[in-house]
Amino acid sequence: MRLWTRAREIPASAPARRRSTRSPASSGPARTVRLTASSGGMTTDLAQKTRTLKAVVIGLGVLIVLALAALGVGIVYRIDRVAGPASGEGFASAGVVLPAGSRAIAMTGEGDVLSILVEDAKGRQQVLTVDRRSGAVLGTLTLAPAP
Questions:
Q1: Are residues 77 and 45 in the same domain?
Q2: Is residue 21 part of a domain?
Q3: Residue at 111 is within a domain
Q4: Cα end-to-end span (Å), the chain
Q5: How many domains does the structure of the chain reveal?
């Protein structure tokens, strides 16, 4: 006997019982119903249902293809948007003049605005907000210790 096979208690050639052993004892005998070509309207109804089912399956297949295409377009759009301009367009050479005796400690940018943390010779820090295209100082934020 193999591991995944079931051993039969009754040989396969034995006739099937007319009553089910799983149902109550009062259940009637089992019936066999066969659909044949001579049954008239049954086959045309079955053919109509088959055509309808085929149409539904084809329609759902088209919807899946359209959804995958939309997903692909969305992914390409987002990748394109995150990557930004392909060439150096939008970048201009601009100089930023720092106050005398100071040095830049940190820098961060977002869009066209660049923020530079500057420390002067006395140790005071300030944040310069600069337009990255023109180099013009948009604002200065002086950082002072609490009194």
A1: yes
A2: no
A3: yes
A4: 90
A5: 2
136 touches 104 (CB < 8 A): no
Quick one: which of 68, 74, 122 has its CA closest to 99?
Answer: 122
In a domain, 79, yes or no: yes
Give the structural domain span for 64. Answer: 39-83
Give 58-95 pLDDT, tens digit per residue. Answer: 999 999 999 999 999 999 999 888 765 554 555 567 77
Residue 138 dihedral angles phi and psi, to the nearest 5°: -85, -30
Predicted TM-score of the model (pTM): 0.38
**Strand order across the beta sheet in which 103-110 lies:** 103-110, 113-119, 125-131, 137-143
142: number of Cβ within 10 Å: 8
In the numeric block, which tokens belong to residue 50? 């088959």
Per-residue pLDDT at 1: 47
